[in-house]
Each structure stands twice: as C-alpha cells, then as structure tokens.
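FYI - complex with heme C, inputs then prediction.
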Amino acid sequence: MTISRIALIFLLSFSTVAVAAQPFVYREFDLFEQYEPYVSGDLKLSGSYEYWKDPANLDYRIAGNPDENWKLNWKFMDPPFNQAVHGGHFALDRGEDLFGQLNIKGRFATCLGVKGGGKSTSKLAGLRAGYPRWRDDLKRVAGLEEVIEHCANKQGRVLQSGSYDNSAVSIYLASFSNGMPIAIDVARAGPMKESFERGRKLFHLKAGAFNFACSSCHSHNIGRRLRGNIITTPYGDAAHYPVYKTQYMLQSLHLRFVECNLDTRTQSLLPGSRPYTDLEVFMTALSNGYPVTVPAERDW
Ligand code: HEC
C-alpha cells in the first residue's frame, strides 16, 4: 500500500465519521407570508393597522369594548392614550438613576453609539429608534439591551439582558425617542438584511410539543381567542418594548419570546441569544415607521 493510498483511506474514514456525527435535524415550516419591513405592511396581513396607526387618536369606543379592543393591537395601553402611572414609570426613574451612575464620564453614552458621546442626555434622542444595528466592536448585529449589557460590562457592572435593571435603562433610553418612528434598514444587502431573513425564517419554524411556529398564531390566527387572550398582528409590537407587565415587573422583547416559547411548550433560549436577536430584527423591521412609545404596559 502506497503512502498516498493510506492517506486516502485515512481521509475517507475521517469524512465518514464527520458525516455520521452530524445528527439529522428535522425542520418543518409554517406557510410563509410576505412581510413588508414597514408597519403599514399589516394592511395586507390583518388590516387592523387602520385602527391603531395613529396612537395619539385611538377610538376610545373600541378601546372600551373587550370583544373589539384587540383590533387596537393593545395600543390603548401605551402612552399617550394610557395616562395612568404604572410600574413602567418607576422603571424609568430607576433607569435614569443607573444611567447617571454609568455615564459619569460620558463613556457609557459613547459606547451605546451616541455620536460624540458625552454627558448631555439631549443626544440620546433617536438612539432607540435605530436599534438593533450592526456593532463593529461586537462584530455582529445587536439589540439595545445586549449593548447595554456589553457597555455596562466594560465598566465592571453586570446588567444582564432581560434583568429588571437592564430593561429599566432600556426604557429610560427609549424615552428620549418617544414619538420618533422606528427606523432600521433591512433592505440594503448586509448583516442587517441577513439577520432579518433569518428572523423571518425562524418566525415560521415549527417547534415544540405542539409543533407551532410564531406565525401559526401571529400571522394565521390573528383575532382568535387563546385562553383569554386574543392574538394580534406582529406589526408594530417592537415599538413599545421593554414593557411593564401588570403581573410581574418588566419584560424585554426577548423575555416575551421566552414567554411565547414556554406557552407553546417549546424550549426557550436565553435573552441575548443569536436567534432571539434575529427575531428582534425581524419584528423591529415590522415596526419601521411606528413611533417609539414607552413606558407601556400589558396585562397578559
Ligand atoms: C399559541 C399561540 C402563540 C404562539 C405560537 C406565539 N405567540 Fe406570541 N403571543 C400570543 C398571545 C396570545 C399573545 C398576547 C396577545 C397578543 O398581543 O397577540 C402574544 C404576544 C406576543 C408579543 C407581544 C405583543 C405586544 O403587543 O406586546 C410578541 C412580541 C410575541 N407574542 C412574539 C412571538 C414570537 C416571536 C413567537 C415565536 C417564537 C410567538 N410569539 C409565538 C400567542 C402566541
């Protein structure tokens, strides 16, 4: 046997091992929908957009009717319609406090991506409306909560994505973008578009004990009742996160994914994990053009 033959056999056996080690992964997808990366795209999905497109002028008669109010995409629980003082406002105060501690030398703001950084909070306007975005330092697309965690870490502080304090800082930062339309670009070729496409695919991936995809509910059963909740469109949702949940404290968008995964008996992932960021990019693009509205609350 020549050396090259031995080498060939060696290589072949190696590749068979490599193939055998790769487990067969079963993947099934729900019917794919066409989505526009803009909030008015809902007109082609559920049509409910016409009722909630102007958050400052919601129809109070629809808001007061428990059978109809889902058509407002729960926007009557957001400011300016919702004038109540709730846990989200206390979170905002906590966020302001933490931001003050972290931004003593203006470095936290610089790290978050505020042009020129510095201590002045006036420069925070619009920051939230442009996240998720590509981050050169992380070499990936990241949502605002992941970046808050990253920038706090650089100062030796632990502010884990999904924690109360992380969401509080996120709400505080978002408050400077209140009324400004979400604007992320997923149309131009590049990492944001790739993330959007992965998110769109994940949204239709069937998984868990019931073999549900996100779209099984949020695209194909909009307006149907599910254990006391009525399912609404995925358009416009990302604009009011993190949200104050009347049952328990604050919920970031990634924690909402955890909840929907657990509700459908699907293994949930960690807040800040790559697939959740892709879902966040997908859902945020579906909020493009819709104003940031914090602090909002939700009952379910
Ligand atoms: C079995 C049905 C079901 C599945 C599957 C499901 N959800 Fe939900 N989801 C709901 C219900 C019900 C609510 C609360 C009412 C609403 O806003 O639709 C909700 C709420 C949400 C919200 C909050 C909406 C808001 O106004 O704040 C988001 C975001 C969300 N789901 C995303 C997802 C994602 C992403 C997936 C897939 C990982 C998913 N959901 C899977 C039923 C489902």
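Strands lie at 133-135, 140-142, 225-226, 229-230, 243-245, 250-251, 297-298. The pocket of heme C is lined by residues 74, 212, 214, 216-218, 226, 229, 231-232, 237, 243, 256-257, 260-261, 264, 279, 283, 298, 300 (CB under 6 Å).
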